[in-house]
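Same chain as my last thread, 198 residues:
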Amino acid sequence: MDINVFEQMANRYDTEERMELAKVIVKEVRQELRASKTKSLIDYGSGTGLVSLELADLVDTILLVDSSKQMLEVAKAKISHKGITNAKVLYSDFTQETPELKSDVVLLSLVLLHIPDTKKILEELFNILNDDGKLIIIDFDKNDKISHPKVHNGFSHEELTKILSEVGFKSIEMKTFYHGKRIFMNQDAAMFRLSCTK
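reply #2:
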């Protein structure tokens, strides 16, 4: 998606609907992070930190990575406002550059659908993860009602599992956990949680 679109949206990104959806996602991801007190987390495509800043108490450190400077400005303001001491932000786009980063956990929350080359980004994330590191993806199930030139219309469980296996991920678990009204391009949609390890 055009980066300027996200820059313009940044200050009004945290709408009621987005905040409600983030709560649902946070609740789901918290279960995945139960034993992660000593772990580092990268939230890739973090936006304003709606999801990951609510997880700060579960991990050792959080790095919010986004390719929109404005989104990260909003996130930084939240970090200082909430007094979160273990979160930092990084302006970066892993589809354009490979950073020298390592992390125990990588989270993609409603981000994969915006990245044209699914396999390439998953390879980048595989490389960033420490051995036995965990990738957590929250995204939409495939939805034939949606057609947009810049966005995947969700993902089929079989296809995504296949790509992850090809990249080298193992212990892939995927389940649909939420059905919502008009949550994906104004269409009713289902969200899945996927976790896998390196």
